[in-house]
Amino acid sequence: MTDREQRRTRAREFDLVLFGATGFTGRLVAEYLVKKRPSLRWALAGRSLDKLERVRNELAALEPSAKELPLVAGDSLDKKAMDGLASRTRVVCTTAGPYARYGSVLLGACAEQGTDYCDLTGETHWVREMIDAHHARAVETGARIVPSCGFDSIPSDLGVLLLHEQLAAKGGRLAEAHYRVRRMKGGASGGTIASGLYAAERMKDPAVRRVMADPFSLSPEGAPERKGHGDWLRPRKDPDTGRWLAPFFMAPVNTRVVRRSNALLGYAYGREFRYDESIDVGRGVAGMARAAATSAGMALSGAVVFGPVRKLAERFLPAPGEGPSREERESGSFEIELLGVGTAGERVRARVGATQDPGYGATSWMLGESALCLAEDALPERGGLLTPASCMGMKLVERLRAAGMTFQAG
């Protein structure tokens, strides 16, 4: 039996370990899992045993069997502890960010141990570092390492996959895809803000800036020519609808993930495939004004990263562990429309959405179902630093539909 087969078939104590369970998003994912799979062989993990016990008590009020949940305490920077954690479970699901600061040791342990892994990162530069450091070893051990399993970047990645499936069923092939945010309402947690500030702080490094500027920064060697694939940074009109479009702040993350999926799927969307993301802000003068204001706001937000402006902003932003209330999460929503154009000019559409706050309510569904998909579903036997579409594909789409999200083709 090969090293890979031994690692993949070795008996494990747990099917799933949720690391970062004491954080704001971690608690939401724990709540989702305990309601969805109370009999799953899983454990709560994090740095503080006392905090883990408090989370377990809160979960037991929702589902009495949760009082028996095992707890695994360990520091994310302690290699021995993370190696031990990864060796005990088939899947690790982690919400402990910023991942560039707290996630590298755990991801590396999973790659080494042949343990499947999913997270919520939107830190493109860190994912590139992890690909370079661990992709080859994860291929050897069979570990399916799947970053960006939340609002970054499941709606984008699986939405484009839906377009591809529609065209492929007709014998066609995608030439381009356009992602349009039609509606988005939600709040922010302290942990997400901290991750964003840390990621922006790293932009002071020229090497990080080069990664972030490269539209194929997550793609394997031999990616298509970069020219013409850059991010939209200014207002523009949609040539198909005449509606005004503003740049989408998550596009520099999502577009790189979609392009990596295309490469990992053997360029199923074609080597000339083009993809972009924008916010649809309406028609006429009002739409133009909203597009200009959104663009200006994105440019201004960069000032928060540096000097006294950042320190002032941090005084008023949520602290790690804080976030939107249950009422705010449940009143949130998002709706995204994707338009696909085939090589022969065919047009297909898809809609992705949820009646939950995109960054927390819906994200806890997306990450929870990604973890369950890795733990329970028959997936292709391929290891490496993968993407939601290239690893879980339509199986995850079906899970998310069953959970209450919209993934509508046509």
Automatic annotation (TrEMBL):
Residues 216-235 are annotated as: Disordered. Pfam families: Sacchrp_dh_NADP. Residues 223-235 have a biased composition (Basic and acidic residues). Residues 17-146 form the Saccharopine dehydrogenase NADP binding domain. Gene3D superfamilies: NAD(P)-binding Rossmann-like Domain. This is Short subunit dehydrogenase-like uncharacterized protein.
